């Protein structure tokens, strides 16, 4: 099935030649007038680099300060550091100094893109109201950070970022959306025949497996492949140490899905390039694979979830649960905790249903929490099967730690999912339109980069 949710917000990474590479081409052509010259971008030519290249002088872009002037607008080192702090706060593992240096340069390239997008909106007299930015900031505070805006302001200050940095990112995304709504979306057309054909394919695929994958894509040319492959391996190392896949995808991925943390949505493996489909085959939820080499670069894949096309999945059932928990006194040994957990589990089994569990819990000094809207899919994988096998009034095996105490879940109700009929005709048309808008938006941004005047300090 095609992606059910597509994104229009783009957070892409600048692609281009380094200062050293440009100097190399220029110097080599000056020294060898007979060598084939690179054609201009407008003529879509092929850059030709002669054999036996000689580097004149040293110019390492990795050692310049993170400050740039983009068409007259300044990106300061503070801008970069504040955005870096926001990214690092999302990672459990502490990246190495080398990883942080690479991330800092990546963020600078992101900020250049962001600046170009804001400038393009301004050039077309497309305004983003401050009130809109503030409203979005409030939603981000509540939905993403689970804090009110004032608490988020304080949190950003503590980690070395700032509300202004996050609001600038919001403004950039809103400005770019305004540009796309005017200059791209009106010129994207999808016929009803295309939509019907796509829906027919979905129905034919009913019962086959589909995957919800996350992807970090790093573009590479023949010359940059070794370095890009090494960068991909270092990203995987950080992810395996507990780094946030979503945060790394937002800052590193060069795919249009970077804005949603690399989420590709629900897809069948047949929709992927052969290399990616082969790599994803056999993945279990939460597993990584990569770097996977493709014709355009390297991908890191992360399996978020798996299901069957247009088939009701028991894990989409809504469960009504009661969580009953007890704490262990300080100094409790493992043997004591195991014995106490066994007694607790037995008492819960004998509670005879959810109507009586509160009274039993009170006798045991246990705490009870009720939640009637728990989707089985959202529970830890090791608990899903156990809970879906329960009848009403039965409890899960006890789980927990000596430090956090032990708890059980009692099933008080279950609403099974209906058969998924898939996206509607209108939703499918919107998906295809968004996909085409994303591709044209990538080309649009490449043009802005090509024409930009950028000075580095």
Automatic annotation (TrEMBL):
GO terms for molecular function: peptidyl-prolyl cis-trans isomerase activity. It holds the Pfam family SurA_N_3. Residues 1-27 form the signal peptide. Residues 208-305 form the PpiC domain. It comes from the Bacteria. Keywords: Isomerase, Rotamase, Signal. PROSITE patterns: PPIC_PPIASE_2 (PS50198). This is Parvulin-like PPIase. The lineage of its organism: Bacteria, Pseudomonadati, Pseudomonadota, Alphaproteobacteria, Sphingomonadales.
